[in-house]
Design brief:
This protein is mainly α. It is built from eleven helices and two strands. It has one domain. The longest helix has 29 residues.
Length: 309
């Protein structure tokens, strides 16, 4: 048990050394210098329970076949839209887009572009998506939980991410908002002409980061409802998600409003998906979200089912 309990400390030390170096490329110096300590403290707190907790009763129900199919279907929707983006995004105004159409909140970011900040955001979003799986694995390895418990969490987190990706893609392709850098005539013409330049609303990186942060925080709180580390886990995961949102604005890939809406959308998905799998939710009542797509439109269908006895 002692060796297992040491796993979080090893991971914490390695992460505290590696991640801030990447973040320092674009974040303010004061923040980059303070992040290692804050990150190490948060990780240590969130993983300190590993090796000292007995297995808790599993609070979630998973139908492996149905939930796997839903996860694959949602990812297919998002992937299909990406494959068809050159066909779906026809109107491309850059670099002559009308900046007067940008609202006052977002005006300060018009024309902004930073490739370094974009790279940091790409690295950080990968970390944010993987961290919940890693924390779940550490929890399982150092407690009495079975491997199936970790597999249940993995599928639940994957389903959350898939729904978040599908929802973001549907909205982004419907809105087709030019990114802030679309107004910068000095950039590479091939970048400005890319279909990706017109998928600003809302921030998928931010939404997916918040979806995973909220989902894992919800899973942790449901499994360990009396744990004093619940807030540490939530603070760590959501703090990193907020940094992702900052990097997306700093890079010129998104406006502040894109990030705010992305954080709200992702957090909502991260709350709803685990909640729908809770054992204490009445199985006679259920609702779902189904993506709809046709040749000239995209949308969502919200369904509600209540069994009447």
């Amino acid at each position: 048990m002692h060796d297992q309990a040491a796993l979080p400390q090893v991971f914490t030390r390695a992460l505290a050394l590696a991640l801030p170096r990447a973040l320092a490329l674009s974040l303010p110096r004061a923040l980059a210098l303070s992040l290692p300590r804050a990150l190490a403290l948060s990780l240590a707190a969130s993983s300190a329970l590993v090796g000292s907790r007995a297995a808790a009763e599993e609070p979630f129900d998973i139908d492996w076949q149905v939930d796997t199919q839903l996860t694959v279907a949602a990812m297919t929707v998002g992937g299909s839209l990406q494959l068809l983006k050159d066909e779906l995004v026809r109107d491309r105004c850059a670099p002559h887009c009308d900046s007067a159409r940008v609202n006052g909140l977002d005006q300060s970011t018009v024309g902004r572009y930073s490739s370094d900040a974009a790279k940091v955001g790409d690295v950080l979003v990968g970390f944010n998506l993987g961290l919940p799986h890693l924390l779940g694995a550490l929890d399982t390895a150092s407690s009495e939980r079975s491997a199936s418990g970790w597999g249940r969490d993995t599928l639940l987190l994957s389903e959350t991410l898939a729904v978040s990706v599908a929802l973001h893609q549907l909205v982004a392709f419907a809105a087709r908002r030019p990114r802030p850098y679309a107004y910068n005539a000095g950039l590479d013409p091939s970048l400005l002409a890319s279909a990706n330049t017109y998928l600003s609303f809302y921030s998928g990186h931010t939404a997916n980061s918040f979806a995973m942060a909220t989902a894992y925080s919800s899973i942790f709180a449901a499994r360990y409802p009396t744990s004093r580390f619940t807030w540490a886990v939530a603070t760590l995961t959501h703090g990193l998600a907020a940094l992702e949102g900052y990097s997306r604005v700093a890079s010129g890939y998104h406006y502040p409003s894109d990030v705010l809406v992305g954080a709200l959308a992702g957090s909502t998905v991260g709350l709803i998906v685990p909640w729908l799998h809770r054992r204490d939710v009445d199985p006679r009542r259920a609702w779902g979200v189904l993506p709809l797509a046709s040749a000239d439109s995209l949308g969502l269908a919200i369904t509600w089912h209540e069994e009447v006895r």
